[in-house]
Amino acid sequence: MATAVAARRRRADSFRIHEDVAAMDDAEMHGEALKEEENGTYRDDEEENGTYRDDEEEVEPADDQESNYSESSEDEPVIDVNIQHDMEKLQSSFSGLRHRYRLIKRIGEGTFSTVYKAEDLQYDHFDNSWDIEKENEKWTPPPLKSFTSQSTTTLGLAAEDPSQHLQRRRKPKYVAIKKIYVTSSPTRILNELELLHDLRGCSSVCPLITSFRQTDQVVAILPYFRHADFREYFRKMTVRDTSIYLRSLFSALASVHSRNILHRDIKPTNFLYDPLTQRGVLVDFGLAEREGLDCKPCLCHEDALMRKTRLRNAVMGSTAPAGGYPKQDTRPSRRANRAGTRGFRAPEVLFKCTEQTTKLDIWSAGVILLTILSRRFPFFNSADDVEAMIEIATIFGQKRMKAAGQLHGCSFETTIPTIGTFGFSFERIVLWSTCRSDTGETLSKDEKLAIDFLNKCMELDPSRRISAQEALSHDFLRMGLEDEVSPEEEEMDIMMA
Question: Count of alpha carbons within 13 Å of 496, Cβ hemisphere only?
Fold first, then answer.
């Protein structure tokens, strides 16, 4: 029995899962609740979840990271035979899918999903309020009457239906079809679809158009956004370009966080950005979750006095030898959500904080800014949690890392000689990574403003880290706004020309 999420119903008001009659191409949608539930959560937080990107917790080494949307927006290339076979198999699995969408190419592949670019063949039959591209078409001049149409009217012949003329002239509309593998948890799939539905209408956030289910196979239909590969343009970005890029990203985060939703996988390949239009869209909510769901109290939310008292009691009751650790550690294991991509996970995630907040997304966005300023991608390239903490400690120093660990009831000790007591400033790191430390050059005024913003994003204490809404008021993200022309002024200029 095929079912579908009727998020694309005409004027849909609520998120429900529906039944699709398999024998009809333009089937009516009937209500049937998705009842599959798993006893456990969709991830085991005690495992090292080495995964790829969008539905998973950790990914392969960052220099090989790809997004399910990671391929640049190029025209149709030559399709591999195996990919063509998979596309044909997908179209055959869902009755009527080939009459609704024309699959073009594969644009991304992950551990739990594959994404294809497709043409929406029935675009004109549905409410397309999700289509932000329509705004760019409002100044498209009307079609001129051709000599042929005038002649046929003069001769008394049947004139062409204007709607047919416009339909023939309309540019193809593309969507992204996300095929979620059957190995994914039904609970996790439903969570992602519900969050996307709740985020509809949010600024710079990819909306859900609709979704279909055939037995245990689920596909989600999402808008297709033209974008460029981050690795192709980030080294060419000026400070002002970076400000515009992050302004769009933080606008999306502000919308997501205002609904108490954690994205958990902020990285360049999950933010589809077009340098030409200077517009970006946040995608991939496979790891997203609601803040405060299934969490336990953590010391980082206690006041300083209570935290100090509990830490002292823990140390006094410890049986660990001085300068070492017990061979038979009888302490209970600590379980916490460690979902995310290696190199972009916040310190509280590495320290297994049991009460994580939306501030972990801000840290990940700060890593993106550090990547752009340093011209190095990936900036962090650790293989596991221990190496990730060593990389962070190299920058912030042992003293601050020990304090960060104590926030979550953890201790941080290392004898690695390259990790100093106080670490390095971001200003020094940027100068060194851009080969300016030996020339005596200093950062420009705009770069210093970016560094100030970076310090607020990559704060080890999540309670002191800047929020997405506060970030939009920072001078760095407001850079150049005074020079922009509002749409009303632009329309007036066109009318006066």
Answer: 6
> Counting Cβ atoms within 10 Å, is residue 237 exposed (0-12), middle (13-18) or buried (19+)?
middle
Give the residue from 223, 253, 277 where a domain finishes: 223
* 309 assigned to some structural domain: yes
The catalytic position among 54, 55, 265, 361 is: 265
Q: What are phi and psi of 99, to 5 degrees?
A: -85, -10
Contact 305, 91 (CB under 8 A): no
pTM: 0.76
450 and 427 within one domain: yes
Query: What are the E-state strand segments in 146-282?
Result: 174-180, 210-214, 217-223, 261-262, 271-274, 279-282
pLDDT tens readout for residues 434-490: 999 888 889 999 999 999 999 999 999 999 999 999 999 999 999 978 666 555 565
Does the annotation count 265 as an active-site position? yes
Sign of CA dihedral 485, 488, 492, 494: positive
CATH code where residue 248 lies: 1.10.510.10
CA distance 266 to 248: 13
* Cis previous bond, 378, omega within 30: yes
Domain assignment of residue 347, given as a range: 230-314+337-483
